[in-house]
Each structure stands twice: as structure tokens, then as C-alpha cells.
Amino acid sequence: MSDISFTLNGRPVSYGGSATDRLLDVLRDTFDCKSVKCGCKEGECGACSVLMDGKLINSCCVAMGATQGSDIVTLEGFRTTERYKVLDKVFAQFSAVQCGFCTPGMVMAAESVLAQNPHPTEDEVREGMSGNLCRCTGYNAIVNAVLAAAKEGNGLW
Amino acid sequence: MVNGFYPQNLDEALDLLSKHDVVPYAGGTDLMVQDKPNQTYLFVGKLPELRNISEDDEYVRIGAAVTFTEALASPLVPQFMKEAVSRIAAPAIRNAGTFGGNLGNGSAKADSVLVEYATGAKICVASVRGERVIPVERFYKGRKELDLAPDELILEVLLPKLGIDDYYYHKVGGRQALAISRVSFGGLLSVEDGVITRFTCAFGAVSGTVLRYPDLEAQLVGRTVEEARGASEKVIASYAERMQLTRGRVSAEYRKDVCLNLLGDFLASKGI
Amino acid sequence: MHNISRSVTKKDHEPKMSGRSVYVGDVDMHGCLFGKLLRSKYARAKVLGVRLPELPEGYTYVDRTDVPGDNNVNIVMDDTPVFARETVEYVGEPIGMVCGPDEGVCQDIVDRIEVDYEELEPMLDLRKADEVFFNYEYGKGDLDAAFAGADKVYDEEFQTGYQEQAYLETQGMMAVPEEGGRMFVHGSMQCAYYVHGAVMRVLNCGPADVHIHQDVTGGGFGGKEAFPSILACQVAVAAHKCQKPVRVVFSRREDLEFTSKRHPSLCHYKAAVKDGKVTAMDIDVKFNGGAYTTLSAVVLQRGIICANGVYNVPNLHVHGRALKTNTTPTGAYRGFGAPQTYFAVEMLMDHIARDLGVDSIEFKRQNLVKKGDATSTSGLYHFDVPLPEMLAEVDQASDLLRKHKEYSKPQTGRFRRGIGFSWHFHGAGFTGSGERDMIKAVARLHKYKDGTVEVLASNGEIGQGLRTTFPKIVAHELNLPLEKVFYDHPDTSRVPDSGPTVASRSLMVVGELLRRAAIKLRNEWEDGKDQIVEERFKEPDFMIPFYLDKFQGDAYPDYAWGAQAIEVEVDTLTGQAKILGAYASFDVGTPIDYNIVMGQMEGGFLQGIGYASIEHMNYDDKGRIRNNTFSDYLIPTTVDVPNLNVQLHVREFPDGPYGAKGAGEVPLVGAPGAYVEAIEQALGGKVSLEHAPFTAEDTIKALAEEDA
User: Fold this and answer.
1) Which of B115, C352, C628, C659 could form a Cys-Cys staple with C590, CB 3.0–4.6 A?
2) With an 8 Å Cβ cutoff, is A89 touching chain C?
3) Are B181 and B105 in contact (CB under 8 A)?
4) How far is CA B42 from CA A114, B13, B19, B243, in A?
5) Which of residues 222-241 of B touch A (CB under 8 A)?
């Protein structure tokens, strides 16, 4: 059989390695998507969060074979969108970025929360981001930024 | 392609499973943590035959490759199951993790499996040799030991529909999200004309498999609520005597105390 | 509020937000080698031999025989080996490293190496440990008389566990041999000059032969204070041997198990009370230092100096020891010895009040220090102690005083509530005369011809905002737009040694140097000219000199203050505690950037809550840390707390920039006392709780004790 084909940030790509390889490693090492961070390799921190067919997933817990035919979006792709601009603005306003290591995953989780629910409550934001650990902020700034994005980005989500 | 097979339909999947040493891969959330790159995966996550949620008179049938997120969005899936799967890990894991995977991983901490035990669900498995339907408590033979031949694939979960709306469920994890169950408890109790017709209690994350004790459950069936109230201490004591918990990072004593506390609370919530 | 407090977009916001920041793990590894460590399987053993499999071409094994200089990492002392000596002293101690072009192959080789050990009996019990790394003792007043004249004497032991920094980016370091024999080491770190000194010694070379660069660093919290020196020495030796760049990035398991964490403690308190006042305390503090000394000396110093908390205890005796066990060496973690003793003293005060039948918050207030009182080390509280006002602020936010009374009434039912209160200081900057005698910070400003100004200092941005706050100070004094002033991650070949990024000192100490340097530059400013100005640390002249041999004098010039209340609801069936509210007022002086400081306060506060509640880590009877994954070592998620209610109380420090004080650590330090007091109150106050973290399992045990 041929290589694994999927869409990465809007472009068709293929991968000729093993189907058991981790999406996380392949995104970083083969496709140079270094925004995708490795925090644990066990689905327990969310630093490697990306969108797969529109859904938030931990790329450390996906084997390459499972990406066959799918649509993958990392922050490298998402950062070109209008929605990103809104998140960028509010994350800056709230100083929601400290060490930055969880940030790419947080941004993808924020996008996922707002895409499903453009006007979430605080509890819904917290629930939606509950798989993304941050050790720096205590979460206030991040949660408040996402709530602000919902207001600012009216109509975008 | 290296280390992977991509069947287009169930027959093809079963054929591959009968001929190759492969591990069925649905959501990957457990398999990838095991980190065994030399395995060969049979990618079944997109097989249409495994992706349905349907119902008949008796059962809600949840396909093995249905994700937890999909189940949460389905009007067919009972609330008991939804509550349990809503507490699994976090959204990203629920977006990928599946019912078949939760079963196939063989863990007694699997949150959907607890509900399957509590409700008396059945598991449908298939191979080129045909299909089998197995009660979940027989499907689990022991810790990480399943009644599943190497050529068999988990097809669907048959979740009984009746009498499970009025459930009792509680999960104890180490925190509110991204938490593996330390104890999970599910209970059902039905009363008709003042007489208990059904009493089931399932305990997760306490032993090699989810635990149920049909003979202890029988102590209350056929009794009136009033009689049961008089017997509740004895019933709880009978569980205390029987339950043997496996050791874990969190002590067996604690987990057992919590099990019995929840059992007592469950009975009390039913006026027993 | 001072107008410098107005928040700006952080200078490193864009690259971090967009995922473009390059952490050491993101470096292109083309032509470079990966390193994997061979680690001890035993807590204590003689290493009789290491049998290597046949190494494929391009793969190299490195161990202590490859160290060109001294096989010891310079931290405070020099006992930590780069690679193990004849014996290994803890599970996971690095014995050697396999380097090669493929990381997986390196690991596979490590797994196939056979090490012959002769097992020795390890020491794993802090109570029995008899090898004393550090032993300090100090006191004042007349202890015997105070105890003899007491109305009542209290005697209690308190215990705290490990806490892991759990920065999201694991430890990682890379060494690159440069032309001319110079070694370049870069990676995730807090203290570039600590790494510089350590690598020089190990490579046996001069200061110019090594330079260290801090990469973008994904959190530190103390965990990247000393540990990076060890890893840097290991990769430097490997790169020296291989003559190729070598990088090691730890897996989460390695990081959780084998890197430094907060010292577990055992604190024994004896207190004398007369007429409702604590008149004396006799305190014995034991910290589990692990297998090597690393930072235990200074952690212990800070821990024992605040052992009497924020209370005026005229007769005091404190004995502190850091002891060796055959476990992972412990080290720096935000709070640095203080959270352990504050937990003990806050619980003790709570228990005494309960025994006396008085409200614990009132009892604490009556014993509080004030301006002009002597410190534990016979220095002075030179400035106002703002804690009474801060208590009022916390009360206003949380309804603390009313709830505290209400929840102290007997509760029945499944869910029971409690609210706990604690307060504390955190001494700003290095303990004692460290800034004056050891660090001697130097900072520079480089003004370029185009009028832009670069800050030259060695303090690392680790998320706390230094790349923004340093330039803010300079831009403010120079009346420049913030875009004209910049601060990069330090490289020791370019920046002076302004000291390490530790002890809540960077902004207060180095920020003040930069403020003075900016004033100097303003006065000397010439358009179109390249100019450099420099400032050096000067100790404030009001200080009473500190003598470490006697623990006498001002241990700190000033203090950051914290007051916090935590409200919980305990499920008596499962022991789980839900945090209903977490409220705090912190005084760190003038915030140089409101959002940045609030981010520090909230983040630190949550780490403290985690430490108190769910962050449980321990080792087994073989000395192995079992909580070595993120599913076994649990830190708080978004849904474990509501929005934290934090406010800033500003009591300026005249010698800090615009009145700023140390900020980084204070928000963590007091949380355990408040949390465990809250649990104790919810449980009815019949059982005295004496350890942290206090987990759901502990709650169920305590409930059983109550029933018994």
C-alpha cells in the first residue's frame, strides 16, 4: 500500500514512515510543526493538542495510520486565521502567556471550545480546556481571555 | 504501508484479523500510551459497521468505534452512560477514545465498562467464524484478560434500555479532570408495588475487573423497601466481607471504605 | 497605582502565542547527536562494571572517565558527580550517556547495557537518617524560663511531602563544540552563570572557553536553578568527547523521577503559651536532602529563619538539619524551604487556638509581628507590616470571619464546609549577606547609535515577564517608547553576571540596578553615540548586618506579605474536597506590570493549593519514586478551582524599583496552611491535621479517627 495521505494545515501531504509512529513526532520532525509541544506523551497534558477533522485531539495519542484521509490543523495553520487574531489579541490583553509551552495547545483548545460553543460560560470554558495543563498562570488569565474572545469575536465562531 | 492495515469494511477487517498478527486500533488513546511501536495496527476506527448508535426494543447498540464525544451527543445513549463517559479524562481524549477501546484495553478502571457491568450489558464480538454475544462480566476473565480470541473484533456494546434511568453513579478520581478512576460506583434499584425487583451494584477500579456480586444483590430482590431498610446494614456488611481489593497507588483500605460509603449512600437514597 | 504598573503586551507574547519560540527541544538536530542517560537501578550500590553491547558506528558511550576536569558539579558545594563515581547513591543516578544520531537507537543501547552492581543498604527513612549535610542552630531570649513559666505547653510534629515543579517543558540541554575549542551550552535554565561556572570546572577551562545561552524556557519554579548545571555538565562532557553537538531532552518520566523537587520535611514544634500569647517556641526542622547536597544549605537557611512564622516569639530556639537519604537530590522550588515551616507554624497556631477555645484568626492576630519588632534572627522589621489590612481585604472578598465562625459549628450530612486562613512573609532576595558577599550583581545598559537600548543582565525570562518588566523600567527612566528597549535571553559571552534568576530577586535587585543605570544613561545620553553604562549592587544602609555563623541580623532587607483564605466543601463519603473559593491579598510592593504580577500571584497560589491537596509523591521501600507520570503525579487542571480571587496590597519598598519587592515566591508559600486548616474545620476540628498534602485518602482516615 502507498504512503499515508492527509491534509495538514490545508495542504495535502503524505507520510512514508510507519503507521504506528506518533502524529506528535511526525508533525514536529517530518513536517516541522514545532508549535506542537511534547509535555508527557501520555495524553495527560494537552501541550500537543491539534485539530483532527475539526476535533481537538492529543497528537501524542494518535498513530499515523489513523490520520489517513484526515484533516489536521496545527497552530501553524490556525495562526493565519481571523479567529487566531482575536485570540492573539485577548491573550495579549490578559497576559495569558507566561512560559509559553502550553500556549499552542491552549490556543487550539480555545478554538475548539469556541467552535463548538461561541458563547460559553466560564464553567464551559474550564471544562473545554480541562485537558490542557498550565503550571504558570493558575488559569485565570487564560479562561478570562477565552471568555473575552467570545465577546470580541462575535460572529467569527 | 508499514505496520498498518486499512480495511474498508468489516469483512475485510475480520479477514485481515484472521490472517495477521495485528492489534485493532480505534481511538489510540490507550494503545499509544503503551508505546509499542513494533506492533502492527489494524485501523478500525473508520469502519462504518462499528460507527453506529442504534436501538431495538431491548438494547441501545453502541458501535465499538463510537467515540465518547459522539455518545455524549447522541439522543439514544442513556444518561447513566453519558454521565460516566463525561468524566473520562478531558475533551481531547473523549474525542478519540472509543467504547471498543475502553473494553479492549481490559482495565477495571474503564468508566464506560462500569456502566456496562451495572446495567448487565452484553458485548458483541465477531470473527470470520461468526458472531458471539457475551455478557460483559463473562467477557472480562481477569485483569487484562478478555474472552476475545486473537481473530475476534469487538463489534458493539448492547446496553439494556429498561430500568436504567434511575441510576446512582459516582466516580472518585484524583482530581476533577484528567483523572483515572480510583473508585467508580454504579447502582440500579427498581421497585414495583413496593417490592424490590432489581438491585445491582458495580464497583470499578478496585480489582482486576469491575466487580459485581449477584448473590449479594439477591439479598434485597423480592423484599419490600421496608424489609430492605432493616437489612441494609447486613447487606453492606456482606459486601465488606466479600470485597477483596487489589493494591494500588491509593490504598486498598481507602478505596474499600469509599465503595462501602457509596453503597450505603445509594441504599439510603432509595430509602433503604 | 504607579503608572509603570499599567499592563503592556509582553515582549515575548507574539513568538510564544504563535508557537514560533524555539525551545531547546525545537532546535534543528541535523548533524547533531542525541544523548540518553544510563541510570542506576538501585538506591545504593557499588558499580562493579558496565558491560556495553557492541556500539554501532556513530554511537559513543560517555562516563566519568571522559570528564576532562573535575567530575563534580559546582552547585553550593561540589559533591554532585557529573557521572556516578564508584557507588551510586540513588535510583536514577546517571552512570553514563549513550550518544548517537538516532534517539531511539541510543535508548535501545542504554536498555541493553549490563551493569554489575553490588547492592548496599540504602538509607530511605528521614527519621533514621544520620548523615547530616547541614546543621544550623540559632535562638534568642530565655527558652527555659519561658517554658517554665508557661500556662500551657504544646508539642506537635508536622510533615510535608515532595512537590515537583512540573514545568510543562521538561529539562533539556545542548552542548555545541565551537571552532577554536570553545564550548557552547544552551538550553532550558534559570541561571546561566551557575551553568557557566559548573561547565568550566568540569571541562577544566577558563571563562572565555565556555559560553552559556538560555533558550526560551518553559517554566522553572526553581526546578531549573541548579539542576541544569548537572545536565549541562553531562552534555558538555559528551560533546567534548564526540566533538559534535549533543542534546538531551528528558522524558516526563525522567523529569518527574530524577530531577530535583521540594524537600520533604519533618518539623517538631514545642510552644509555650502564657496569657494568650505565644512566649516561646523550640523548633526542630529536618529536611530530606536526598543523595547530594545541591541547594539544601540555602533551602534550609530560609526554612528555619521563618520557622516562627509571622509571630512575635520573644524566646526562640530553632535547630535545622538537612539530612542525606539515598533518594533523588531535592532542591529549589518556589518558596525554598519556607512552605514547609509555614505550614507547620500555621497549623500549630490553629491547634493552640482551638485548645484555648479562642478563634484562631483572632489568636494569630494577637501574636502578629509589627514594625519595630525583632525578627527571628534579631534583625528588625524596618517597615510597616501590612497583614492586618490584608486580612481585612481577604475578609471583604471572602466573608472569611463570618464563615470561619459559622463553619466551626457542628456540621452533619455528607458535605461539610470549612474555611482556613494563613498569612506569611517571604524574605525578598538572597538570604543574609548573599547579595552583598556572593552575588555582587552587575547590570549594564547598552545604548546603540540608533537610540535603541539593550538590557544586559543574566536573569532569565522563564515566564515571569523579565523580558518585559526590565525594559519597562529602563524605558520609563529614559522616556523612551517600550519598543526602543529590549532584553534578550542571556548569553554569558555578552552579559555581565547580574546573579541568578532565583529568590524573587530579579526584579527587586536587578530591576533597581537597571533603574539606576537608566538614570545614569539619561544623564550621560548623547544622540548618535554608542554608550554603555553599568551599575553594581549596593546593600541598603539601614540593614543590620547578617552573620550566618550566628544567624543574627537582618536576613532580608524587606518582605513580601501574603494573606490567604481557602474555602472547601468536603465529601465525607469519598474524602474529596471541592475548592469553593481561594482568596488572597499579596503585597509585593509596586507591581511593575499589573497583569504580569497578577499572573505570578495566581499561578503561584494555585501551585500552593496543589501542594496542599493533590500533589502527592513518594518513594517505595526500594527508593523508587512511583508517581512518575502525569497520571500519577496530579497537578490542578482548569476545573479543580474556580477563578482565584487575588488582590494586590501595595506597601512599597524604598530600595526596590518604584517600590517593587520580590514577587515570584510569595503566592505559593502560605496556601498549605490555609487549605489544611479549611479541611480540618470541615471535619469538625476534632482531629488535628499535621501533614500536607492532605489528600482525599487522608480525609477518610481522619473521619475514621474522629468516629473512633
Assistant:
1) C659
2) no
3) no
4) 34, 7, 12, 38
5) none
Partner residue facing B175 (CB), from C573, C614, C700: C614
Q: Across chain B, what does the average pLDDT equal?
A: 96
- What ipTM was reported for this prediction? 0.99
Q: Which of C219, C593, C641 sits opposite A99 (nearest CB)?
A: C219
Closest CA in chain C for residue A130? C638
Name the minimum distance, in Å, from the CA of A104 to any CA of chain C: 6
Yes or no: say if C656 and C515 are a contact pair by the CB < 8 Å rule: no
Residue among C308, C418, C408 nearest C354 (CA): C408
CA distance C639 to chain A (A): 6
Nearest residue of chain A to residue B46 (CA atoms):
A66
Match domain A80-151 to its CATH number in 3.40.50.720, 1.10.150.120, 3.40.50.20, 3.30.420.10. Answer: 1.10.150.120
Give the mean pLDDT of chain C. 97
Q: Do the domains A80-151 and A2-73 match in fold?
A: no
Name every chain C residue with its beta carbon within 8 A of the beta carbon of A77.
none
Q: What's the rounded mean pLDDT across residues C221-245?
A: 98
Sign of the CA dihedral with C594 first, then C599, C600, and C601 last: positive
Class of domain A2-73: alpha beta
| Residue environment code for C672-689, b if the CB has 16+ CB neighbours within 10 A, otherwise e | bbbbbbbbbbbbbbeeeb
Residue-wise pLDDT for C127-162, tens only, equals 999 999 999 999 999 999 999 999 999 999 999 999
**Percentage with pLDDT > 90 across chain C:** 98
- Residue-wise pLDDT tens digits, C543-597: 999 999 999 999 999 999 999 999 999 999 999 999 999 999 999 999 999 999 9
First vs last C-alpha separation in chain C: 55
> Does A95 touch chain C if contact means CB atoms closer than 8 Å?
yes
Give the type of residue at C160: T
Q: Which chains have at least 3 CB atom pairs separated by less than 8 Å from chain B? A: A, C
For chain A, the domains span: 2-73, 80-151
To the nearest 10 degrees (0 to 180), the angle between helices C466-478 and C511-524 is 30
* Upper half-sphere CA count for residue C71 (Cβ side, 13 Å): 14
Chain A contact set for B178 (CB, 8 A): 44, 130-131, 133
Cα-atom radius of gyration of chain C, to the nearest Å?
A: 25
Burial class (CB in 10 A: 0-12, 13-18, 19+), C708: exposed
Identify whether the C-beta of residue A5 lies closer than 8 Å to the C-beta of residue A71: no
Tell me whether B25 touches chain A (CB under 8 Å).
yes
The grid coordinates listed for A95 are: 497576559
How deeply is C615 buried, as exposed, middle or buried, from its count of CB atoms within 10 A (0-12, 13-18, 19+)?
buried
- Smallest CA–CA distance from B44 into chain A, residue: A66
Q: What DSSP state is assigned to residue B75?
A: T
Q: Which residue of A has its CA nearest to C253?
A: A40
- CA–CA separation, C65 vs C237, rounded Å? 10
| Chain C partners within 8 Å of B176 (Cβ) | 637, 639-640
Structural domains in chain B?
48-160 (3.30.465.10), 167-270 (3.30.390.50)
CA distance C421 to C565: 4
Q: What domains are there in chain C, each with its CATH number?
A: 10-19+440-534 (3.30.365.10), 31-120+180-242 (3.90.1170.50), 263-429+548-705 (3.30.365.10)
- Give the burial string for C626-656 (b: 16+ CB within 10 Å, else e): ebbbbbbbbbbbbbbbbbbbbbbbbbbbebb
Phi-psi region of B165 (alpha: psi -120 to 50; beta: other; left: phi over 0): alpha
Contact assignment for B93 to A46 by CB distance below 8 Å: no
pTM: 0.98
Nearest CA-CA distance, residue C342 and chain A, Å: 22
